[in-house]
Amino acid sequence: MTILATEGLTKRFPRVTALDRLTVSAGPGVTGLVGANGAGKSTLIKILLGLLPPTEGTATVLGLDPATRALDIRRSVGYMPEHDCLPPDVSATEFTVHMAQMSGLPRSAARERAADTLRHVGLYEERYRPIGGYSTGMRQRVKLAQALVHDPKLVFLDEPTNGLDPQGRDDMLALIRRIGTEFGISVVVTSHLLGELERVCDHVIVIDGGRLLRSSAIGEFTQATRTITVEVEEGRQALADRLTALGQTVTAHGRLLIVETDSPAAFDVVRDAVVDLDLCLVRLEQGRHRIEDVFREEVANV
Ligand SMILES: Nc1ncnc2c1ncn2[C@@H]1O[C@H](COP(=O)(O)OP(=O)(O)OP(=O)(O)O)[C@@H](O)[C@H]1O
């Protein structure tokens, strides 16, 4: 099943081409839309919601054309915009109930759905206070709640971790993962931080300067490499020397040692060396490509 698809999608503003013949598709689950600031992520979402007309090309969302079926799309799709757009004088409850009613729910159902949704996103007693006094994390949660309150099939989350501290970021990422898994709602989430999407996405679309760089399942980005990553508490140099003496090719990467190998037997060699040197092992794992590395290589090749 295809959740969204574009074909030759182009958006030209007077001074800049925000999307340049973008052809891409995504299925159900959590899809990351990644690109530097100005890559065209928000423009793509706005076109998919029918808020902006494309200059050329076509798009479908849940099988519907945003150019002609924008209202039907918005009935089944939630949108968490990037920028702050919340009224300061009303409470999260009042705002979310209002948004639920705007989507067509009767008042009593809207109240019930709003209460459930605010609880799901982690807003409790504070939901009765005016939004103007909320922290950035709480505001992001309200924006998320209003995107979910009408029980959509798909949500677009534009930079949901923006402005959050590390804990807030982790909480938001965990919530996004739950939306995709427990709630069964497909998610398209944008970020300029590749590393954070690695943790929550099933599929990643990378765009740069409005063009498609890559669209792949997350597993293809993070394939196993022919390396083993080792971390010890102390004695990193001694371990590197020992492994080198044993014929391994070892490089240091901050606190980590990267051992190049094709053979699973190298795990045993590392383990035995750690035991011989009486070191405390923190980590011993198969090296994997990081999504950042793939992105860096592909941008360099453009
Ligand atoms: N309404 C507009 N008028 C003119 N140019 C625009 C408009 N909206 C976006 N742009 C330009 O289009 C390009 C893509 O912008 P867009 O907001 O889609 O990028 P983005 O990937 O979402 O980045 P960011 O995270 O910084 O918003 C940028 O160069 C931006 O300046």
Describe this structure in words.
This is ABC transporter ATP-binding protein. It comes from Sphaerisporangium album. Belongs to the ABC transporter superfamily. Helices cover 38% and strands 28% of the residues. The strands form three sheets. It has a six-stranded mixed sheet with strand order 5-6-7-3-8-9, with helices on both faces. The chain has a four-stranded antiparallel sheet with strand order 11-12-10-13. It has helices at residues 41-48, 66-76, 92-102, 107-120, 136-148, 166-181, 194-198, 218-221, 236-245, 265-276, 291-301, and strands at 4-12, 17-26, 30-34, 56-61, 77-80, 154-157, 186-191, 203-208, 211-217, 224-232, 249-253, 256-260, 281-288. The chain is globular.
The residue ranges in which pLDDT falls below 50 over 5 or more consecutive positions are: none
Number of domains: 2
The percent range for helix content is 25-40%
Which ligands are bound?
adenosine-5'-triphosphate
Mean pLDDT: 90
Shape: globular
Q: Which series of helices and strands comes N to C?
A: EEEHEHEHHHEHEHEEHEHEEHEH
How much of the residues is beta strand, in percent? Answer: 25-35%
Strand order of the largest sheet: 5-6-7-3-8-9
Radius of gyration: 23 Å
Summarize the biggest pleated sheet: 6 strands, mixed
User: What is the highest CATH level, the class of the largest domain?
Assistant: Alpha Beta
Which fold name corresponds to the CATH topology of the largest domain? Rossmann fold
The CATH architecture of the largest domain would be: 3-Layer(aba) Sandwich
Please count the beta strands (DSSP E, at least 2 residues each).
13
Fourth-tier CATH superfamily name of the largest domain? P-loop containing nucleotide triphosphate hydrolases
Family: Belongs to the ABC transporter superfamily.
GO molecular function: ATP binding; ATP hydrolysis activity
Domain ABC transporter: 4-234
Keywords: ATP-binding, Nucleotide-binding, Transport
